[in-house]
């Protein structure tokens, strides 16, 4: 690997050829905000929140996708950068429900974003929640169109291609073919789309129902890493436990084998752990010869 | 991938349309492992297949989507995502007659057609590229064969007749009718306009056609590119990139094959020069492409034509056939040209969105870098040139040393609207004079330069010299050569509202600054138009700056320019 030297915010740094500006910033400039960037998906650079200034470039460039070049001069903060970030936060904040998106309140404060200034009449993507199966719900009022679920379902992970972006412009939305219910689609309920969703537009039914009932309490939850016991692959699981009950299962994204991906059994097959066997085994030899 | 379809067979009509493009379905039984890569490698046939179904049936049903999915081994969701991207497709049943009436800048200002004037079942359409004949409509009758007719100079009665299903006669006008300079011996790009049947190959050869190709073969790639470089030819699609540099970059790529894409997706409101060129001299475009292919080592040529140009489609299809029959094109020649018809999407004229569209994906722009010369169509080195750029090539091969001629699309309040070929260096006033000057009783209010992605200038800019350098220094651009002359009768606020609506409609929706920014921009414009001022101009400036600075592609980056100029230069909304 060739090392490249570049200048970020006045400091000379080195980075491996082929890495992105965001990666080159490493923990150092951890303050580049991102929304559509996920650790396990090649970024689509659709949200444009991570924009930075690169000397010689007419427009701002997305730090998540632009590879470093020798002698590049990068500014991760400037008036132009801050303005773009503020506007992206306002555009999303005024059109999408970001109540379950991490960091948004802090970023709004930091960049002076005021999503309220577009008024009550501003167009939004508000729509009814899609509940068409027992395992997860799709609340597209919270969707920022980061493309991660589409890529996770498609060629980057699951190869199921159940969902795609349909429509165009502000009408663009994540959809199955002809908007059929998931139960009529090729969905295998791996839930890898839930894993990558940064805004809570896709959440397990267990979480959705607890939130609706007002019993979801993340502060009261403990997480425990373990190994899935269903088959011999040995996928890593993270059990989210509240009141001694598993309320959700995710998967560690830094797992070198599974990268946060699971199958339906690992992600959703946890109820047997706590339900026990509600019907005791029978001792009647005639019932089970 | 496990395909899941509904098992509802496509109708006979749908199947026939699909097989017109994909051929008969191979016989498969449950244990047949055929498919996979063999099917998926034909993904680039998706757009032609969707066009075929939409042409024949009028819309694209779920069972048609399922059937196409099975034939291409792609998921139905992907097919649906592509089908819903294009404005000329529908995924709900609709009548066989579809009427698209242009309500864009020239047609609303000079044809008196706005959304409010249309019958309920007519579609308001973005610019149909017939501004010199405003107003215009595109009438599509699905069937076998479908009839697709674009008509200019229409009346409200004709629109009414079209929507009520009356028979529509294709116009019989000659392609040179709106080339006011036709026959002028000094013309280079439009030299054959008005010289008889543009599809008569013998007349073309007699008229000096193919001489440039012979010269180019003699030159070889290095000398061709040197001649283009010496001529100083810049791209005519809007970005004005040096053509020779593009060609040299592709020529030296080791990855094979190379692709040559001719961008004929002319959709910039106010632009109709490429249509005029293709209608009047289709052979010259093909000859230019063959020369470009020799220079850049391209094996595959593509012409991506916007879906709203049915007469050009017929002309080019016939011209390509003639060239094939004459042995000038075809696999045995090492270079062939495929005509791809778009389906209503301005964004597909963007040089990387055009790749996605041709490959059978949603026409969303790609991230740059990597640039097309390295990673382009099908991930291979690709040259993308606009039609007018290409049309400069033959004369350069034959000794023209300076690429100083270019086309301007004059529309609006001039006596003779049309395409004008001029030597660079004219002033705006001189150009308007060439078009016969202003109409009787017209006083100049403003000129839109470069289309919706360009900028307005006021009457004080009449001395502007129309060169790349002078316009750049003035913060303007020649863009695609639009010169829309607006007189005192034109409601500039209405023009600004339309531009805002245009970009909102045409944004692909991929990036936030453009997807939401174009909506917020339109909302502010509507508030300003209704008299609300309070801080709105400041908000609009904020929105514009973010779109310009942070959008992925040129669409979002230019979506605020014309509006900004209308406010700052023309003062359409007064001061804050």
Strand order of the largest sheet of chain A: 2-1-5-3-4
What's the number of structural domains of chain B? 5
CATH topology of the largest domain in chain A: Alpha-Beta Plaits
Rg over alpha carbons of chain A: 22 Å
Q: What is the CATH class name of the largest domain in chain B?
A: Alpha Beta
Largest interface: A-B, 50 and 53 residues
The CATH architecture of the largest domain in chain B would be 3-Layer(aba) Sandwich
Number of helices of chain B: 24
Which structural class should the secondary elements of chain B be placed in?
alpha/beta
Model regions low in confidence, pLDDT < 50 over at least 5 residues of chain B? none
CATH class of the largest domain in chain A: Alpha Beta
Biggest beta sheet attributes of chain B: 5 strands, mixed
Describe this entry's structure for a reader.
The complex is a heterodimer of chains A (289) and B (576). Chain A has 289 residues and is of the alpha+beta class. Chain A folds into two domains: 1-123, Ubiquitin-like (UB roll) (Roll); 136-275, 2-Layer Sandwich (Alpha-Beta Plaits), CATH 3.30.70.20. Chain A is 21% helix and 18% strand. Chain A is built from eight helices and twelve strands. In chain A, the strands form four sheets. A five-stranded mixed sheet of chain A has the order 2-1-5-3-4. Chain A has a three-stranded antiparallel sheet with strand order 10-11-12. In chain A, strand 3 (51-54) and strand 4 form a beta hairpin. By secondary structure, chain B is of the alpha/beta class. Chain B has five domains: 12-83, no CATH class; 97-163, no CATH class; 201-397, Rossmann fold, CATH 3.40.50; 406-485, Ubiquitin-like (UB roll); 492-568, de novo design (two linked rop proteins) (Up-down Bundle), CATH 1.20.1440.230. Chain B is built from 24 helices and 13 strands. Chain B has a five-stranded mixed sheet, sandwiched between helices. In chain B, strands 2-1-3-4 form a four-stranded mixed sheet, covered by helices on one side. In chain B, strand 6 (298-305), helix 13 and strand 7 form a beta-alpha-beta unit. The chains are: A alpha+beta (289), B alpha/beta (576). Chains A and B meet through helix 2 and strand 7 of A and helix 4, helix 5, helix 19, helix 20 and helix 21 of B.
């Amino acid at each position: 690997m060739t090392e490249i030297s570049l200048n970020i915010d006045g400091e000379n740094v080195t980075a491996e050829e082929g890495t992105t500006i965001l990666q080159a910033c490493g923990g150092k400039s951890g303050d580049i905000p991102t929304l559509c960037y996920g650790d396990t998906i090649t970024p689509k650079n659709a949200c444009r929140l991570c924009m930075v200034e690169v000397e010689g470039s007419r427009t701002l460039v997305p730090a998540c996708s632009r590879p470093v070049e020798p002698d590049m001069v990068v500014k991760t903060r400037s008036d132009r950068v801050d303005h773009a970030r503020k506007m992206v936060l306002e555009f999303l904040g005024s059109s999408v429900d970001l109540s379950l998106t991490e960091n948004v309140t802090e970023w709004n404060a930091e960049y002076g974003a005021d999503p309220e200034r577009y008024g009550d009449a501003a167009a939004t993507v508000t729509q009814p929640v899609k509940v068409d199966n027992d395992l997860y719900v799709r609340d597209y009022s919270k969707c920022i169109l980061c493309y991660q679920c589409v890529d996770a379902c498609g060629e980057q992970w699951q190869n199921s291609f159940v969902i795609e972006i349909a429509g165009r412009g502000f009408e663009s939305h994540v959809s199955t073919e002809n908007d059929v219910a998931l139960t009529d689609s090729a969905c295998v309920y791996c839930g890898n789309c839930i894993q990558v969703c940064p805004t809570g537009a896709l959440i397990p039914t267990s979480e959705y129902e607890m939130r609706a009932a007002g019993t979801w309490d993340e502060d009261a939850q403990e997480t425990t890493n373990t190994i899935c016991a269903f088959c011999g692959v040995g996928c890593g699981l993270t059990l989210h436990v509240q009141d001694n009950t598993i309320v959700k299962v995710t998967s560690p994204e830094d797992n070198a084998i599974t990268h946060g991906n699971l199958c339906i059994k690992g992600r959703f097959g946890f109820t047997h752990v706590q339900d026990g066997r509600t019907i005791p085994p029978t001792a009647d030899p005639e019932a089970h010869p | 991938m496990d395909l899941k379809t509904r098992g509802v067979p496509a109708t006979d009509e749908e199947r026939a349309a699909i097989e017109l493009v994909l051929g008969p379905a191979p016989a498969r039984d449950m244990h047949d492992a055929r498919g996979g890569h063999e099917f998926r490698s034909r993904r680039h046939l998706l757009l032609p297949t969707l066009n075929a179904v939409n042409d024949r049936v009028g819309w694209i049903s779920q069972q048609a989507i399922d059937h196409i999915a099975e034939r291409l081994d792609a998921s139905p969701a992907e097919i649906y995502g592509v089908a819903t991207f294009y404005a000329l497709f529908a995924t709900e049943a609709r009548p066989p007659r579809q009427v698209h009436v242009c309500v864009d800048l020239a047609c609303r200002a000079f044809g008196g057609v706005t959304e409010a004037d249309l019958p309920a079942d007519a579609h308001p359409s973005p610019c149909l590229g017939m501004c010199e004949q405003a107003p215009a409509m595109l009438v599509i009758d699905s069937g076998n064969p479908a009839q697709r007719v674009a008509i200019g100079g229409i009346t409200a009665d004709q629109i009414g007749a079209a929507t009520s299903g009356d028979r529509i006669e294709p116009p019989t006008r000659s392609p040179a009718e709106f080339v006011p300079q036709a026959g002028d011996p000094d013309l280079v790009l439009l030299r054959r306009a008005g010289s008889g049947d543009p599809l008569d190959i013998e007349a073309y050869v007699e008229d000096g056609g193919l001489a440039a190709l012979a010269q180019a073969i003699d030159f070889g790639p290095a000398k061709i590119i040197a001649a283009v470089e010496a001529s100083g030819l810049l791209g005519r699609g809007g970005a004005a990139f040096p053509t020779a540099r593009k060609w040299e970059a592709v020529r030296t790529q080791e990855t094979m094959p190379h692709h040559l894409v001719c961008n004929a997706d002319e959709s910039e409101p106010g632009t109709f020069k490429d249509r005029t060129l293709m209608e009047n001299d289709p052979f010259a475009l093909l000859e230019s492409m063959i020369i470009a292919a020799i220079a850049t080592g391209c094996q595959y040529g593509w012409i991506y034509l916007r879906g709203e140009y049915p007469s050009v489609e017929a002309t080019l299809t016939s011209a390509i056939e003639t060239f094939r029959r004459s042995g000038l094109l075809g696999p045995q020649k090492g270079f062939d040209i495929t005509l791809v018809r778009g389906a209503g999407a301005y964004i597909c004229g963007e040089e990387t969105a055009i790749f996605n569209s041709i490959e059978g994906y949603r026409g969303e722009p790609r991230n740059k870098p990597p640039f097309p010369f390295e990673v382009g169509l099908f991930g291979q080195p690709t040259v993308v040139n606009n039609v007018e750029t290409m049309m400069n090539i033959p004369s350069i091969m034959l000794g023209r040393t300076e690429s100083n001629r270019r086309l301007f699309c004059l529309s609006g309040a001039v006596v003779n609207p049309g395409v004008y070929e001029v030597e660079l260096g004219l002033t705006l006033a001189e150009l308007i004079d060439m078009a016969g000057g202003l109409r009787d009783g017209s006083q100049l209010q403003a000129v839109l330069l470069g289309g919706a992605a360009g900028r307005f200038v006021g009457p004080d800019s009449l001395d502007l010299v129309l060169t790349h350098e002078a316009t750049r220094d003035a913060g303007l651009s020649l863009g695609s050569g639009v010169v829309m002359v607006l007189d005192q009768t034109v409601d500039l606020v209405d023009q600004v509202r339309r531009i805002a609506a245009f970009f909102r409609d045409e944004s692909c929706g991929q990036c936030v600054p453009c997807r939401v920014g174009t909506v917020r921009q339109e909302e502010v414009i509507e508030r300003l138009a209704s008299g609300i001022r309070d801080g709105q101009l400041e908000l609009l400036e904020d929105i514009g700056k973010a779109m310009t600075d942070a959008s992925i592609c040129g669409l979002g980056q230019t979506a605020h320019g014309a509006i900004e100029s209308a406010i700052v230069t023309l003062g359409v909304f007064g001061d804050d």
